[in-house]
Records
---
Amino acid sequence: MIKNIILASKSEVRKKILSDHGINCEVIPAKVDEEMVKESLLKAKATPELVSKNLAELKANKVSERKYDDLVLGADSVIDLNGKLISKPANRDEAFKILQKLNGQKHQLISSVCISKNGSVIWNHTDKASLTMKQMNDEELKTYLTKIKDEKLYAYNVYQIEAEGRSLFLKIEGDENTIMGLPVKQIKEYLNILK
């Protein structure tokens, strides 16, 4: 299996997942204006899944154009609540409103990954997990938010399944690595083919 790739993301969680699975990565964030891209895709009536795929591809290609001959992995995760995209919060009020929307509901966490070489996509994959949030009152939601540090809240949406976020859910269906933003099983399968 190829064991060295470039990760076009500053996500510590994604880096750790790769490392835990024996894949070394150099981190080069893509520096993409995600909100602007999301906005234009949503105006064009793109589904949350399509937004996730496009962002993963954009990140991988952007770094790949600078790092010729290297394999570059781009990734993006979004929350899909009844066909509507839920974006990362910009502040704590937004985080609270997102939790209120998800409260007692089942939603999908969509994680897309893309590997690019020489500026073009050579492989991509999208995986989904379903999460059903407990019914909680506003005080419980506020208490949960006090446990989450700002940088975690804004980088990883409103919950981190590997930490405090697990306590929010009644039912989790799907791969935990997908929920954490990187369906690593499929990435490893593809890298194995490339030997």
---
Amino acid sequence: MPIYAYRCQGCGEHFELLVRSNTSLACPHCGATMLDKCVTAPAAPGKSKALLQKARAQAAKEGHFSHYAPSERPKV
């Protein structure tokens, strides 16, 4: 069940709807059925180098290295 973004042609409001096969599309603000489907950018998963370094530092602080590659694990 995808969530779509819409703009109402009647009142101009932007909103998102969870769309099921039996969903009747109507503006939650004014009830109009004349809606434009909007293009939205998907959110990319957080995999930046800064986030990975922070997660690895936290894991090292807690003492677990299971998600590291063998070459990255500390020598004990």
---
Amino acid sequence: METFKKVKELVAAIEADAEKFYNHANSAAGTRVRKGMQDLKNLAQEIRTEVTAKKTSAK
């Protein structure tokens, strides 16, 4: 559950840069959004691994 909280925090942190990129054409903010999305992808994979491990150990 800790990793899921990190995902929520990361999405909140990316939100400001996403607004700058999409609404104000700030290309540097776009770079930060891309990095944040990569970090989000990695955290999502961690969650998938954790869920699979928990499901397997419950059997």
---
Amino acid sequence: MKRIHQIAVASVMFAAGFLTASAANSSDWVKVSNNASVPTDFTEAAESTINGVVSIKSYATRRAQQSFGGFNDPFFDFFFGPQYQQQPRQRQQEGKGEEQPRGLGSGVILSADGYIVTNNHVIEGADRLEVTLNDNSTFNARVVGTDPVTDVALLKISAENLHVIPMGDSDKLRIGEWVLAVGNPFGFTSTVTAGIVSAKARGIGGSSARRGQMGIESYIQTDAVVNPGNSGGALVNTSGELVGINTAIYSETGSYVGYSFAIPTSIVTKVVTDLKQYGTVQRAVLGISFRELTPQLAKEKGVTAVNDGIYVAEVNDRSAAMEAGIKEGDVITSINGVAVHNTAQLQGEISKYSPGDKITVDYIRDNKKRTANVTFRNSEGTTTITKNEGFSSLGCALKSVSAETRSNLQIKYGVEVTGLTAGKFRDAGIKEGFVILMVNNEIVTTPEEIEDMYDAIVKSSDPDKVMFISGLYPTGRRVYYAVDLSSESGNKK
């Protein structure tokens, strides 16, 4: 049985004058349009991109590795190689809390002043991130923001005048067009391979599910050779423009056997712009449950006007779809003029927009074509901008749980941990995605309530300053944590 493997173990960077305007202007990232007539001489494209590729090494202390499953991770051998199998275990026994290598991947420089994009799975669970440029300069990186839904992470290093790969437009890629994958497979630096675009808007079903997350999967599929170490690396066209971030391979063995997958820049630019400006992705929600229209379903429902599309199984209350008049039984055929034949295409198109954006949706009802004007909402059913506010001492970013999460976990309230850095939460073993239901036996519904409780605990005269936290992980597993605040000075840092 073939498996989808994430490919964290090499390096690539890309830059494109990092956008400082609002997320709604994410199209400003696209500086150059694709040129389909360029010859198949890859030398210029290769030479112009290798300096925009970086290696990303992740490190974690023994304590942090244990809280993340340590070296029992089923992908450990895939990330590190068998030569690391015994060494880290021996070192763990030697010194508690000693820093150990955790993984190796790639990144792409987004701006000359040090913003770097990579895969979330490259940096997940790390206590320290080390970025090495093509000239062997090394920097410690901080995490600006992460988005497990798209497997994108944004990092920052303190550097200037970095080499930036021009941003291309992945929407203009054509099937059969030549592309290059740039990265550090198996630790071999500045490696370039070539292939063609095999498919667009490809869903591969499993890379997100394996990680226990709902994910957006609308990949560029290529036959460019990609191996462990290419995760987070650059996919570029023959003009040397970035069109995707390499993220996964389809393989029985964990090594390349024919197909690789990249997140298109149409999604990446939206995600990293939001992460930089807001700390979290402003994700548009249509508000429907759906199925792909198959010949069997079409026959069952009497649909004859189209052969494929998105069959609306249910319309959520207070949703953008309900407001626009979309109903159960409709078949969506395009989003803002772009055809959607399957789930991957629907996800890819909607992921480009933010709450409050106005678009058109074409659909079939009673075998007649109709058009609706839709104003996207967020998961809370509003068009307001949300920000990820964190506590530096606790080392976490929090947000109220979405309606979707409440429905999935069958809960009525809670606060989700959406990001972690070094701090009290990570020390206690809390992981990203954990939903806090109660703190010290009190129900919590907003991040502000947790902040107020934190203030009250650290300012109290009680020598035992502890946050007793109970909650759920996305799998439904209930967990209890004790977060020791006794070392706090009485004020937030």
